Amino acid sequence: MSTLVFCLEEPSARAMLQGLLPRLLPTEVQVQYIVFEGKQDMHRQLVRRLKHWLAPDSCFVVLRDQDSSDCRLLKQELRALCEAAGRPQALVRIACHELETFYLGDLAAVEQGLGLGGLARQQHASKFRTPDRLANPAEELVKLTQSRYQKLAGSRAIGPHLRLDGSNTSASFCALVDGLKRLPV
């Protein structure tokens, strides 16, 4: 049995993954979460947490929001931290710009998870065809759902409905799913 360890910036990412992963991973894979208190805490503690992880049969996934950072530089920085911890094989993924981009890429999942009607029809609007380009996806999602979306509860509700077939229009979500499918777990 192998263990997949997610290093996350915030609890809402864990809530989303808890709904998503049972449909993606083999049942024998154990999943554990290291949830940091924001991106600064992640950068401060990541090396120590990875270096001192004791379970020998573990794969690591680091997931962080891009926010206003340069995506490529941020990914290089996180990879360097993983290498410094002796975990160069860790999968590093960036949510461009925020986790909510994943949800805006699959408005049918938002509609279903939050019990709203008519959202899926808006998927073909230009901003939802490429949601990774939106500067503030969380704000956009709150507006779109008329404030029904709340970060933690919304992530928990939407996660189980996110499609895994490549139809999500968020390229960063598809990169996460593709990377998880290729892990040796």
Which terms would index this structure?
about 45% helix, alpha/beta, four-stranded parallel beta sheet, about 15% strand
Structure notes:
Helix content is 44%, strand content 14%. The protein has a four-stranded parallel beta sheet, sandwiched between helices. Helix 1 runs parallel beside helix 8 and helix 2 runs parallel beside helix 3. The protein is globular, with a radius of gyration of 16 Å. The model has no long low-confidence stretch (mean pLDDT 95).
Fold blueprint:
Blueprint: E1 3-8, H1 11-20, E2 30-35, H2 39-51, E3 58-65, H3 71-84, E4 91-95, H4 100-104, H5 107-114, H6 126-129, H7 137-144, H8 151-158, H9 171-182
Parallel strand pairs: 1-2, 1-3, 3-4
Helix pairs in contact: 1-8, 2-3, 5-8
What is the number of beta strands? Answer: 4
Overall average pLDDT: 95
Q: Give the N-to-C terminal Cα separation.
A: 8 Å
Please provide the ordered H/E string of secondary-structure elements. Answer: EHEHEHEHHHHHH
Low-confidence region ranges: none
Gyration radius from CA atoms, angstroms? 16 Å
Number of helices: 9
Estimate the strand proportion: 5-15%
* Alpha-beta content class: alpha/beta
Q: How much helicity do the residues have?
A: 40-55%
Overall body shape: globular
Largest sheet, in brief, is:
4 strands, parallel
Name the strands of the widest sheet in spatial order. 2-1-3-4
